[in-house]
Amino acid sequence: MSRDPARAATQFFGGRVCLDFANTLDWRTSNDPQELIPDYAALLSWSERRGTLPLAATRKLKARSASSEAAAAMQKAYDLRRDIWTISDALRGGRGADLGLVNRLLAAAPRQPDLVRQDRGYRHALAGIDVTEPLWPVLWSLTALLASDDARRIGCCEADGCGWFFVDESPNRTRRWCSSEVCGNRERARRAYAKRKGSA
């Protein structure tokens, strides 16, 4: 992740929609975490950048960004994000996911709709009617992750204070950073400085 919240909000290192959503709290394990989706408009912007909503649905939902329903949806978003943290921490620690929690989340979501083509990719054909629609692709991504072998490949960035999750797709499961170019470079520089200072 980046120290710049605007830049961090455009960085998708998790490898899966649900983990990228978990990473919408920058510096999650630090003393000064930075919220990347502070309101419903920011949630829609994140969904648009991540490509989880059709453009037509996004436009409809933007008109309701200031509503009380949108504010309530944000609380559900934060609850879902917290639940993904809990599940991801359990899996990367070699423990099982709380399926009671997962299945309760699923019970509140609709079935997955058809797909529509957009640009060079595909989106769920969400209609922009329900303000909680941005959360549904996140939940579907979580269940797809749990139902795959990738559930055993969840890792967490080792950089001090980062806390971003990812699917470790390296051949030997040796990935250590959310991004080698961002946190990896920062940590290598920090350790090199500490070593030089210690030698001095």
UniProtKB/TrEMBL annotation:
Gene3D superfamilies in the cross-refs: Jann2411-like domain
Top-rank taxon: Bacteria
Zinc finger CGNR domain residues: 153-196
Annotated protein name in UniProt: Zinc finger CGNR domain-containing protein
Source organism of the structure: Bradyrhizobium uaiense
Lineage summary: Bacteria, Pseudomonadati, Pseudomonadota, Alphaproteobacteria, Hyphomicrobiales
